[in-house]
Amino acid sequence: MYKHILIVFFLCIASLIASAQHPNDLSHISEKARKYYAQSEILAANRKFDQAVAVLQKAIEKEPQFAEAHFRLGSLYEILQDEKQVQYHYEKTIEIKPKHRPFVGAYYTLGHYALQRGKYDQAENYFNEFLNLKPGRAPQVAEANKAIATCKFAREAIANPLSFRPQPLPKNVNRFALQYFPVLTADQQTLIYTARDTLPTDNDEDLYISYRNGEGWSDPVPLAENINTPENEGTCSISADGRTLVFTSCQGRENFGSCDLFVTYKTGNEWTMPINLGGKINSIAWESQPALSADGRTIYFVSDKRGGYGKRDIWMSELGEDGGWGQAVNLGPSVNSTDDDLSPFIHANGTTLFFSSRGHLGLGGYDLFYAEKEDGKWALAKNLGYPINTYDDQVSLFVTADGRRGYYSHEEKMGKKYLSSVLHEFEIPQQIAVQRKSDYLKGTVYDAKTKQKLGAKIELFNLASGKLDALMQSDRKTGEYLTVLTEGSSYALYINKDGYLFKSLYFDYDQKKETESVTLDIYLEPVKTGAKDILNNLFFATGEYTLEQKSKTELDKLIGFMNEYKNIRLEISGHTDDVGKDEDNKELSLKRARNVYDYLIKAGVPASRLTFAGYGETQFFVPNTSDKNRRLNRRIEFKVL
């Protein structure tokens, strides 16, 4: 902004110096006023702005209609950042000498002031007058055309408002002078945000945590002593399960640049000592405002490093199989503009990105946008609309996994000075609801025999693509886990731990339209003779025994298990419900088990380590008393021999 002010000022001074070379231009002005005007030029050139203002005020006292003096005063007040005086003197300038080309800068600045106040008709008129005077400065011409487009867009958005009724969070949460950048876990039971205890904004910035307590929230407390320090800990992001946290730190830690991103992990109730995310993410530039994917293995963040499309851009990095973060890549021009793009938030579905921008077309200043990831590429960003966006700056947004509620901070300023920042929530309007909502599945992992709580690896596969969608761990102390399931896909969920049979679960979200959470405790069977479990992700057409293509994920998982435990033998057994003849059911179950057996043999598993059997309806898993139970009884099991 200061750079912009200097450019405008010196362009204005250059115009005035040129006009001052023609004495007839000021022949109608008294000699005393001209003398003051000349003195102001020398004082301004020597950066004695206050003194220049004083002598120009004397010139205007002598000649109230001295347009050039008003114009120069407006330019000086731009440098001194006194908007009220800038507006007064520029308006006076064009009132005295309207449509006068040397005063083109007044129209440009007045247009911006009107735009910043949401006076779109007035702003458009000023910018049109600016362009009519043919300023000949390409950057300003481009900015004026963009501002005119903003005015037109804003009027259309205001004519088609969204339903938007934000409510502040309880007073015990909004207890600080400033609070902002709220994030929640997928189950919406934990809230973490950044806060400053007192004004001004150069004091300590810390992270606070609050827990849902019935209809309200518990009193916030500092997140952890090894995270908060006497220096600033800023914007953070948390994984869906609340056990991976990335935050911004600018002082007091070993940084690559001015601000870096750090990660910490929660085990039980303790957070690990934060560590720098490393040189593939952090740089000598400024990195901040992280956004984690639901499983905590993809991070989006903001940086002003080289190689971007604008001033500050949104970048992304993925966690590799080796546990290291990959080289950060820019999200590209569909998301990043030629100006600032900030505050990314990736929804739990992994395909909807919300962010703030002042480069994309909006209602002025920073607006909130969203972009959808389609076939691995980001579609063009879309404005969230009015009145979520207004002429004021809208900087960040968090949307719950179920897509129903949004959280943000409402800020009030006087100039650049913060007066307040209060956390709010609102119902997401249907017009901008996420296309793919997410549920969460949570519970505790146990040893099936001892009931000991276990830390286990949890894999979520998309059965249509066969790709790993998410990878996480249950807490090694509490055994707790949480994962996200998103509309539009069917999933295989695997729970794995050394020394145990893997647990296979199936979730059909292909046609799911209503979100609902699931709580499910997992019991793992130790690998020993007689241990068995169900292969829930093997699929056959009704009455058929040929394996469907989406069974490949499970078959490959079983092959991996056999390769890991090279000394065990397995029985693959088929089972049916009680519909149909006993002999037909037994034959069908045998053929299905045989097909699984054949697949494993072709994949290289020795025949000596496998056998298969068909039990028909004789070993039901649950009573055949309902369609749901019959589906459960139609199954393939694997058992250690």
TrEMBL record:
<protein>
    <submittedName>
        <fullName>OmpA family protein</fullName>
    </submittedName>
</protein>
<keyword id="KW-0472">Membrane</keyword>
<feature type="domain" description="OmpA-like">
    <location>
        <begin position="527"/>
        <end position="641"/>
    </location>
</feature>
<dbReference type="Pfam" id="PF13414">
    <property type="entry name" value="TPR_11"/>
</dbReference>
<dbReference type="InterPro" id="IPR006664">
    <property type="entry name" value="OMP_bac"/>
</dbReference>
<feature type="repeat" description="TPR">
    <location>
        <begin position="67"/>
        <end position="100"/>
    </location>
</feature>
<keyword id="KW-0802">TPR repeat</keyword>
<dbReference type="InterPro" id="IPR011990">
    <property type="entry name" value="TPR-like_helical_dom_sf"/>
</dbReference>
<keyword id="KW-0732">Signal</keyword>
<feature type="repeat" description="TPR">
    <location>
        <begin position="33"/>
        <end position="66"/>
    </location>
</feature>
<dbReference type="Pfam" id="PF00691">
    <property type="entry name" value="OmpA"/>
</dbReference>
<dbReference type="InterPro" id="IPR006665">
    <property type="entry name" value="OmpA-like"/>
</dbReference>
<dbReference type="Pfam" id="PF07676">
    <property type="entry name" value="PD40"/>
</dbReference>
<dbReference type="Pfam" id="PF13181">
    <property type="entry name" value="TPR_8"/>
</dbReference>
<dbReference type="InterPro" id="IPR011042">
    <property type="entry name" value="6-blade_b-propeller_TolB-like"/>
</dbReference>
<dbReference type="InterPro" id="IPR019734">
    <property type="entry name" value="TPR_rpt"/>
</dbReference>
<feature type="signal peptide">
    <location>
        <begin position="1"/>
        <end position="20"/>
    </location>
</feature>
<keyword id="KW-0998">Cell outer membrane</keyword>
<dbReference type="InterPro" id="IPR036737">
    <property type="entry name" value="OmpA-like_sf"/>
</dbReference>
<dbReference type="InterPro" id="IPR011659">
    <property type="entry name" value="WD40"/>
</dbReference>
<dbReference type="GO" id="GO:0009279">
    <property type="term" value="C:cell outer membrane"/>
</dbReference>
<dbReference type="InterPro" id="IPR050330">
    <property type="entry name" value="Bact_OuterMem_StrucFunc"/>
</dbReference>
<feature type="repeat" description="TPR">
    <location>
        <begin position="104"/>
        <end position="137"/>
    </location>
</feature>
